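Researcher: Let's try something more involved. This one mixes different molecule types, so please make sure each is placed in the same coordinate frame as the others.
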Amino acid sequence: MIISYSRGMKQGFLSILPLAAGAALYGFAFGVLAAQIGFPWWGVALMSGVVHAGSSQIVAVEQFGSHGFVLGAVLAGAALNLRYLGIIASLSEVLRDVPLRVKLLAIHITGDENWALTMARRAHDPAIGAPFLIGSGLTMITVWVTSTSAGALIGGAIPDLEGYGLGFAFTAAFIAMARAMWRGQRMVLPWAVTFVVTLGLVQAGMGAAYAIVLGSLVGVLMAQMRRAHRGETA
Amino acid sequence: MSSAEWLLIGLLAVASYGVRLAGLIGGRAIAVNPRLKPFLDDLPGCLVVGLVASSLAGAPMVTWLAAMVALAVAIASNNVVVTMAAGLAAIVLGHYLAGL
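Model: All components are placed in one shared frame. Result:
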């Protein structure tokens, strides 16, 4: 049992490496940006270790850097993480037979990449389970903490990059996140409404954090109305 | 670090683990709840679009153009790092051309 457990973890560790390389680049870029906003490298390392959620961290740090409003930044970051309700829920079978303390660790080290890889492999091979998830998850969190800290070390050593338009890297990251969340034509209406409403509210002088939440809620409402109109179920 | 930065990290960690724990305890019931599911499905995407809108509000033309370049690259590549690099290159080039 122990041998097969460690073999499963090793398999997870090796299989995730290509995806971990991609996450390392993203983590490095996030670290540079966080350092430019004023976080020390060890603060970035701490955040990556205890939060372990790339898009949440980038959104929260950008909102904090732009507006200095802690609660708004946390809410924006946490709301982006709501997808983990579904992700963790889908692991109930994988984690069914592991002790509680291992479950509590496994849910923290699970990220988009190792979750998706575990589920994809498990679909073909039912023997893939908790050891694979944990092995790949330990790799991902280690790579994430290391790459973000390395980025912050470099970012803290170079002068103010904001003058070169570095802040735009955040906007570009958000655009890329939206692209990854695109699920077809049905997103057009809610996203267009969110964009226009948020833009209008900020232009009218509303604080960005409130404008984003209000604009997004109007967008979600539009999506619901569209579904109701078409008689679709979610 | 300032107390605000400590608070940000602490609250974000609690919120992040809280969502995961909720997924572990009541996840399936929450995730398939017909009232909550559409909200959980739609909110993250709308929030990201709202973030893009707020960062472009009142920005100069060069930023909007760079955003369009980033969008085109994002559609083609579906890769965060490639999109960030292309967006940065576009805005640096834009500022350079505007300064000529």
